Amino acid sequence: MQKILNIVWLNIKLILSDRSELVGILVLPLVFTIVFGVVFGNMGSESKVKVLFVDKDKSTYSKQVKELLKEEESFSIEATTQKKAEDTLSNKEASAAIIVGKDFGKDVENGVKTNIEILKLPDSNRSLAVVEVISGIAERITANAKTAQVVQGLLDEARQDFLNKPLLSPQQKMPSSTGVHTDTPSDPKLLALSSIMNDKQIAQLSKMPVKDLPEPTKQELTKIFPYMETNPDFKEFYDRANKAWEPDPPVDIVTMEVVASKVRGDSTLAQGFSHSSLGFTLLFVMFIVFGGAQGMLEERELGTLSRLLTTPSTKAQLLLGKIAGLYMTGVLQAVILITVGALVFNVPWGNDPLPVIIIIGLFILATTGMAIFLSAVSRTRGQMIAMTNVLAISLAMLGGCFWQIEITPAFMQNIAKFTPTGWAMSGLVDVIVRNQGMSEAMLPSLILAGFALVFFVAGLKFLKFE
């Protein structure tokens, strides 16, 4: 066992002593992860959309438009004048400008149709988001204003009805001093007046419409109908309607992405650094393991591999040491890239570590078996270098390491099922991005184990020490 461990450590030391190998382990994966995370991810979408705001009205309602715009976290709102807004847009220094006209507030209160203007560049896709948000704000303000107008109208009708009717309807009877007549339900108007008038006084006024009652009597009746003289301010109704939108609107929209391929997990796609960190971990594991296998082929060409057989180590020990060395090299590369992904790019590698460890471990095993097979069938080191470089890039592309496999045509998604990278990415995305558990890692793990078995059997069959 000690001899096998010595051979493993020797392989790792050879890699760590080679500066070009260190660049491949540390620098290139980091560079590629950043580049592809930015290009294909959502870093670009994280930058704020600059929106100019022109308020000509300065009313409560125009200020509400601005406040609601500020609640959109992806927007950067800048107050300005219309002239400056037009100049800024002409220079393509902003995505859109919002203009609230001078009489916006009056029109809202008076029920007059009004507009919120949007200036945008014709070729700006980001301005579409501004249009959507402003449309939502306009609908909210419209709903609040309509609600206030409807309530005001209902109150107007109720007031007219209250003022034009007498204190007692024809079927009602006067209450006695001991209480309300048993044939008639308690009348709140009469009960309100009973504190300032006796039954005789009430009887004298009972047939009169409320609007013709003496002013002190009408003032007493405001206790049961406070809006007898006038409606509350429009803004009071508007504010009450507006509160119904907080903390969430009465009706919300939930958007889900459904991809053309079979929906896996909760159908969430890996994006940005989450995807690039996963993909390039697999790619550079292949590079480092294939590179180690190239060293085995070079040893065979130079004859050092056969000379090792003259040492006390057996052929089996040498072979196990070489295989274990390749495997541990891949593990070292994976640990470095996973750590960088978690600490630098906030990729949640460790939320459920067991299935991640199993998938990555079996992928490295399959890659090691592939490397042994390629070193066995290659005649020269140069031939193997060319073969492994093409193979690693091809497997990464076909397996979805560069981009989400779900966005590719169906035939490419089917091809991915015949690659170890495709199954490794599938399992890792399910576990890390879609928060699935060990159950979703089982099938990819079994298939990766199958790849490893096939490649090891084939590789050991053709492997030669001389």
Give your account of this protein's structure:
This protein has helices spanning 2-16, 19-40, 43-46, 60-70, 82-90, 104-110, 126-164, 188-193, 199-205, 215-221, 234-243, 272-302, 304-307, 315-344, 353-377, 381-399, 410-416, 420-433, 438-462, and strands spanning 49-55, 75-79, 96-100, 116-120. The protein is elongated and about 120 Å long. It is 63% helix and 5% strand. The chain has a four-stranded mixed beta sheet with strand order 2-1-3-4, with helices on both faces. The chain folds into three domains: 2-42 and 272-462, no CATH class; 48-143, abc type-2 transporter like domain (abc type-2 transporter like fold, 3-Layer(aba) Sandwich); 155-221, no CATH class. The model is unreliable at 42-46, 177-185 and 256-267 (pLDDT under 50). It is built from 19 helices and four strands. Helix 14 (315-344) packs across helix 15 (353-377). Strand 1 (49-55), helix 4 and strand 2 form a beta-alpha-beta unit.
